[in-house]
Every structure is written in C-alpha cells, then in structure tokens.
Amino acid sequence: MNSSDLQKLSQRSRFMRETGIALLFASGILALFLFIPLAPEKIVPAPITIATSTPPDAFAQIPLEAKAAIVYDLALGETLYAKNADAQLPLASLTKLLTVYAALAELSPTTPVTIPAEATRLDGPHAFSVGQIFTLSDLARLTLVASLNDGAAAIAHATALRGNRSQHEALAGAAAALELSQTYAINGSGLDETTAISGGYGSAHDLARLAGALVEKSPSIAAATTRPFTEAVSAGGTSFKVKNTDPMVGTIPRLLLSKTGYTDLAGGNLVLVFDAGINHPIAVVVLGSSVKARFTDGTTLVAAALAHFAGVSSL
C-alpha cells in the first residue's frame, strides 16, 4: 500500500468518526423531544357571560286614592312599599288598636270591664248599656270587629283606672312603649273631638307596627277581626253578635287582623295583617282614602305584596 492509499484510508476513517459523532448528537436531540414532555400550551379561558335581570317591581305605578299607605314586612322589619308612610294623619277607629293594646299591656284578658255611663253617650256605632260587664278579651273582640265606640271607651276607662291616670296618659304610655313616634290619642275610640281635632293621630308606618304588635300579643283577639261575625256573652247573660265592618275579610288569604276606620277628618282608613308564608306577617295600612276606596286600595296592596313574594309583576 503506497502513501496515497494510506492518506485516503486516513481521510475515510476521520470522515466516519465525524459522521458517527454527528449521528450521536442528533440522536440525543431527538431523545429530548421524545422523552421530555413539552410545556403545555397556555389556554386563555373565554370570558363567561352571566345573564342578569332586574326582578319585576310589583309595586310600580300602583293607583291609590289614599293619602298615605305602607306595605311593611313585620318578620324582617322592612318596608316593601311606602307612600307618605311617616305623615301624621287622623286615625279614626284605628285608634281602637292602640286602646286594646294598652289595655292588654296592663290588664289580664279575663279582667272584668264595666260599661260606664259616659261610654253610652258617645255617637255610634255602639251596642251596650250602662253597667254591663264583659271580660276584657270578649269586649275587645266585639269592639274591634264592629268598631264599637262605647266598647273602646269602656276599655280605655278601665285601663286608666288601673294605672290611676288619664285615658290620654294611658294611651300615650302604650305608644311610647312601642316607640310609635307619630302616634298619640286623645280618646280611646278615635271619634273626632271637634271639626278640626281628631281623636287620634298616627302614621302608616306606626300603625303597621302597632297592628303587628297586637297580633303578637293576642292572636285570638286579632283573629276575631278576620271573621264576618263575632259573638260574646256579658256577665249578666246577655248575648251579643256583631258584624265585621270589613266586608272583604273572607277574600284575603291567611288574614291575621283587619280594622277599619272612618271619620270626617280622617276619611277612610284600613289596616290589614296577613301571612305571606309560614310565620311571615305583612302589614298593609291605608290612611286618608274614601269609604269605598280604602278597600280597593287595601286589596291592591295585598295583591302587589303577594306578587312581590312570587317574583312577578302582578298576579
């Protein structure tokens, strides 16, 4: 083998070594791609669109004749609807709610109450004679259901005697205990004192809370106001059956209390308490309406309250 052949053989060996090294390097790079996982591609999530909607307002554009009104959630202490709800207005016979509450705060439901002479001289509606005696509970039921002025006067008289103070003071004490800042009564019946002075004043907000307090204090007396009639017997054995002044008591579901009121100064007033669910009382108060419109105003607000809890604009 001459020198030229040796040179060729040396060049061929060097080429093969370089080629082998290149192949090993390439194999190593390939192994990295095959056995080492690639970093995952970062995925940007698409924006999520959440559909939102405003709940329907069941109380929007309610037509009311009343000067003031409220729908008040007694369970939560929240106002659902208000129209001049803090305005102080004449109460008429809604004053009787305060009279009965004041009596129950100081007297037992079984306390005997005598009809005094001055009570029988009041304007109607009235039903009793001087000297007749009833338990407070029976007299309160008759008085609230038929809005009896003589019964309210007798209850206020008995309450004042127990506390050795005037009827006005006794009623003011009850209003203060409930923190009814817009409420005060001159007499127990709510009859106008003069052509310019009412027998009692209060706001729709105060009356809602007062009605709720009476339902809580005496559910049985309140329940009597939800029936078309109620009956009681005096201590002397005289039976009385009186008709409810609210003709729509049978039309409102789960009604807990109803009380009407009307005088020349007050106009038509109405208080309703009904259960919107299980132990969820709602108070509806209408002040300064008319004799007929107080009932349409009241039913309109009750329907709106029920629609509110159903999540619809109307029923």
Structure description:
By secondary structure, the chain is an alpha+beta fold. The strands form four sheets. It has a five-stranded antiparallel sheet, with helices on both faces. It has a three-stranded antiparallel sheet with strand order 3-7-6. The chain is 39% helix and 20% strand. It is built from nine helices and twelve strands. It has a single domain (68-310), classed as Beta-lactamase (3-Layer(aba) Sandwich), CATH 3.40.710. The chain is globular, with a radius of gyration of 40 Å. Helix 2 (95-106) packs across helix 6 (167-177), helix 2 runs parallel beside helix 7 (204-217) and helix 5 (149-163) packs across helix 6.
Question: Topology of this protein?
Answer:
Blueprint: H1 3-35, E1 68-73, E2 78-83, E3 89-90, H2 95-106, E4 112-114, H3 117-120, E5 133-135, H4 136-146, H5 149-163, H6 167-177, E6 184-185, E7 200-202, H7 204-217, H8 219-224, E8 229-233, E9 239-243, E10 255-263, E11 267-275, E12 281-289, H9 293-310
Helix pairs in contact: 2-4, 2-5, 2-6, 2-7, 4-5, 5-6
The overall number of domains is 1
Q: State the fourth-level CATH superfamily.
A: DD-peptidase/beta-lactamase superfamily
Low-confidence stretches: 1-6, 8-13, 19-41
Shape: globular
Spatial order of strands in the largest sheet? 2-1-12-11-10
Count of alpha and pi helical runs: 9
Which CATH class? Alpha Beta
**Global structural class:** alpha+beta
Order of helices and strands: HEEEHEHEHHHEEHHEEEEEH
Q: Which CATH-level-2 architecture?
A: 3-Layer(aba) Sandwich
Radius of gyration: 40 Å
Note the beta-strand portion.
15-25%
Give the end-to-end Cα distance, rounded to a whole number of Å.
115 Å
Q: Compute the average pLDDT.
A: 88
Helix content: 25-40%
